[in-house]
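Sorry, can you check?
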Amino acid sequence: MPRRLLIVDDEPLSLRATRFVLEQGGFTVTSFESPKLALDHLNAQPWDLFLFDVDMPDYDGFELCRRARQNQKTSMVPVIFVTGYHASELTARCEESGGNDMISKPFSFPGLLQKCWTWVFWSRRRLGSTVSDKTQL
């Protein structure tokens, strides 16, 4: 069964390109341009990974992460922040909000895939089972 990934990015072109690459890499992807809309769908299904843009209207990816961490169903889902800033500039905010990792734009698509799969594997080992299903990796 494909792994479920939720992407939230307010830039449509970036969102489509990232979604395409992740789908080609074996993920089932749900995407939203609005963090508020994404919040409404956090409980829609079990997730294996979240990919949140940092700079968005309404509220940023850090706030979206904090809210996901307050939700019992999504509190343990790994979060990777995507940012146009140098990742080291935002490390403290990433950690404070409950995020797990960051990747700076522009990123290589193979690098993104590697990072996403690494966090899915890490999460499954840490939890002792899969997040979205009980099948073997």
The first helix runs from residue 12 to 24. Strands lie at 3-8, 27-32, 49-53, 79-83, 101-104. The two ends are 9 Å apart (CA to CA). The domain at 3-127 is CATH 3.40.50.2300 (Rossmann fold).
